[in-house]
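FYI - complex with 4AD, inputs then prediction.
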Amino acid sequence: MDAVKRSKVKELLGMQPGQDVLAKGWVRTKRGNKEVAFIALNDGSTINNVQVVVDKTKVDPDLLPRISTGACIAVQGKLVESVGGGQAVEIQACEIEVYGECDPMRYPLQKKDTSFEYLRSVAHMRMRTNTFGAVLRIRNQMAFAIHEYFHGKGFVYLNTPLITESDCEGAGQMFQVTTLDLENIPKNKKGLPDYSKDFFGKQTSLTVSGQLEGELGATALGEIYTFGPTFRAENSNTPRHLAEFWMIEPEMAFYDIKDNMDLAEDFIKHLVKYALDNCYDDIKFLNDRYDSELLPRLEGVADTEFVRLPYTKGIEILEEAIKNGVQFEYPVAWGVDLQSEHERYLVEKHFGKPVILTDYPKDIKAFYMKQNEDGKTVRAMDVLFPKIGEIIGGSERESSLAKLEGRIDELKMSRKNLEWYIDTRRFGTCPHSGFGLGFERLLLFVTGMTNIRDVIPFPRTPKNAEY
Ligand code: 4AD
Ligand code: MG
C-alpha cells in the first residue's frame, strides 16, 4: 500500500483528480447503502474531511463493519471528481487497511455528551473534535505569526527563567518550587523554613512574568520579546484565568508610552489579520457553529483605530453611566481597580471598539511603572477588548534610579533581592517600555470561544492538573 506517497487531507482536497493517492486518518462518519459506503476521513490537517467512496462488491465483506466512527484507517485509491455536492474531489477506494478499530459501544465521544466541560475530561478525544482541531490549528498559526512579527522587526527572542526568586508583579500569587521534605521541613532560629537548605539555597517559585529579566535584555540588546509559560496561583475560577498560561512580553529600549501603545495596537491588528488570512476555514467553522458575530468582530478590529483614554476619564464615563441607571456589581470610584464588567462596558457599550486605558493610579499598579508628574498616576496601559476585557497589560518603565528605589521602599519590597534589576537604572539607564499579551486571551478573541480552558490543550486551573 505504501507504494503511493501519503498525502495529507488538506493537500488532497486541492489536488487535481485522476491521481492515485494514499490517505491516512480517523473516521468521522460512515454512511451508505447496499452498494456503496461513504466514509468521511479527517487527519487533523484541516477542518474539512475527504470523502472516501467504497464499492462494497470490491472489498472483503468483513472489512466495512470494522470501520466505525473514530477508527483509524489508511486508504489507497483514485482521486476522482466528486459527483455529490460539498467537495470537489473524493477518493474511490481500492484498498483499505484498518490500523485501529474503535468500539462504538465504548467510544468516549457519544453524541449525547459533547459539552466543552465533558470534553475536557477526555483529553485525546477532545482534540479529535472539529471544534478543538480548529482551535488548536489557530493557536499554532498565531504562535508562528507572533515569532514572525517580532523577527521581522528585529526583536531578539529572549528566554527568561521559569524558576525564579523574583515576584515581578508583586501580587504574591506564586507557586513555590522546593525540594525540601514537606513532612520534615528544616527550620531556622526563628522557627521558619530554612531555605538555605533548599535546592537553590533560597525560596523560589514559578515565574509570574518574564518582564524584569526582559528589561535586562532590552537595555542590552535594544528590543526583545519573550514567549513562554507563566504561572499564577490566584484562586480565580473564572472563564478568563488559568493557573498556567502563555505570555508574550516585548520590551523595548527608547520606547515611550506612546511608542508602546502604537506597537501593541499594530501587533494585535497584525495577528488578527494574519488569522483571517491564514485560518479562514477554521474561523468560518467556529463562526457558523457558535458565534455568527465572530468574523465581523475580527474584521472590525483589524480596521479600527483603538480608543486611547486616561483611567480618570474612564472612571468619569462609568460614573456617568451609573447616574443614567447602569448597574454594576462592583463599585466605581477613582482609585479602584477596574473589574471586567467595567472594562467591557467601556469597550462594548460606550465606545464599541478596543480601548487602551492609560495613566492608572499608582497604588493599583506594579512598582516598576514610570511615575507621572501628578504624583498619583503611572504611565500604565491596559488594552481592553470586546468580550474579554484586559488582553494586554504594560507600561513605560521607571527609568530614574531614585524614583524606582523610592517606590520599592514605599511598597516595603526587599531591595536586596532586586539589586540585579536596579542595576539597569544604575549603569546607563534609558527610557524603555514593554507589555504582556496573554496568549490565551488573544485566542479567546480570535476563536470566539468563551472559556479560556477551551483554547489551551491541557488547562491548569484550581483543582485541575490531570494529564
Ligand atoms: O497585566 P499582567 O499581570 O502584566 C504583567 O505580567 C506584566 N509584567 C507584563 C509586561 O508589562 N511585560 O499580565 C499581562 C497579561 C494580561 O493582560 C492577560 O492578558 C494575561 O497576561 N494574564 C492571564 N491570562 C490567563 N490567565 C491568567 N491568570 C492571567 N493573568 C494575566
Ligand atoms: Mg494586568
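The mean pLDDT is 95. The pocket of magnesium ion (ligand 2) is lined by residues 382, 390, 393 (CB under 6 Å).
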